[in-house]
Amino acid sequence: GAVVSQHPSWVICKSGTSVKIECRSLDFQATTMFWYRQFPKQSLMLMATSNEGSKATYEQGVEKDKFLINHASLTLSTLTVTSAHPEDSSFYICSARGVSGGAYETQYFGPGTRLLVL
Amino acid sequence: AQSVAQPEDQVNVAEGNPLTVKCTYSVSGNPYLFWYVQYPNRGLQFLLKYITGDNLVKGSYGFEAEFNKSQTSFHLKKPSALVSDSALYFCAVRETDSWGKLQFGAGTQVVVTP
């Protein structure tokens, strides 16, 4: 099946620093990528949707200046948490949908990135 | 607006017994329905999806799900559970005329005891 990778899998940083997370679709081209945040024992919360070559669409309540998303190619999207604070500590998961982008397409998920801000 | 309900926070089952994880949905049009499984500290793994056609969908690891339009349900089933099936299961829906986001249920923790 389709594979989505994320890097890094774990990151610990000091408060005030910025952290970049990479998401790659390894064997398919992803027109659309999604970034989710998940708190312990909770469902996934969609943060933003990004289409290759265009600006990301953020969900209500998600600060676009804090969570910078770049979808530079059909196989790579990045999420940068700027000036991270302890409340940004969470599990971040990316997801990619196939090249046709249709609603019937399966979304494949990365393994997640655990961020801990001290 | 679309929504998904997973009425059980946790399902406990003995190994070898049938496993059912319930899911009901609400959409204004026709739904595309998905099941994913999440192991601790991991992303979601795709199990199966219903797009159209046969109401019984077979997926990975011996799982299957039945689409019931009249009951707006898409319950996940496995005839004989394994201890390794213990994980968090998510049901998700997307409307067929939407190119947008999946709506996830709250998740159901499955615990399979030896």
Q: Notable features of this structure?
A:
heterodimer; A: 118 residues; mainly beta; 7-stranded mixed β-sheet; 4-stranded antiparallel β-sheet; globular; B: 114 residues; 6-stranded mixed β-sheet
Secondary-structure blueprint:
The complex is a heterodimer of chains A (118) and B (114).
Chain A: E1 4-7, E2 10-13, E3 19-25, E4 32-38, E5 44-51, E6 57-58, E7 67-73, E8 76-81, E9 90-97, E10 107-109, E11 113-117
Parallel strand pairs in A: 2-11
Antiparallel strand pairs in A: 1-3, 3-8, 4-5, 4-9, 5-6, 7-8, 9-10, 9-11
Chain B: E1 3-5, E2 10-14, E3 19-21, E4 24-26, E5 31-38, E6 44-50, E7 56-58, E8 64-68, E9 73-78, E10 87-95, E11 103-104, E12 108-113
Parallel strand pairs in B: 2-12
Antiparallel strand pairs in B: 1-4, 3-9, 5-6, 5-10, 7-8, 8-9, 10-11, 10-12
Short description:
Chain A has no helices and eleven strands. By secondary structure, chain A is an all-beta fold.
Task: Summarize the structure in words.
- Chain A is mainly beta and 118 residues long.
- Chain A is built from no helices and eleven strands.
- In chain A, the strands form two sheets. In chain A, strands 2, 4, 5, 6, 9, 10 and 11 form a seven-stranded mixed sheet that branches. A four-stranded antiparallel sheet of chain A has the order 1-3-8-7, with no helix packed on it.
- In chain A, a hairpin with a 5-residue loop joins strand 5 and strand 6 (57-58).
- Chain A starts with a strand and ends with a strand.
- The model of chain A has no long low-confidence stretch (mean pLDDT 89).
- The mean pLDDT of chain B is 92.
- Chain B has 114 residues and is mainly β.
- In chain B, strands 2, 5, 6, 10, 11 and 12 form a six-stranded mixed sheet that branches.
- At the A-B interface, strand 5, strand 9 and strand 10 of A face strand 5, strand 6 and strand 10 of B.
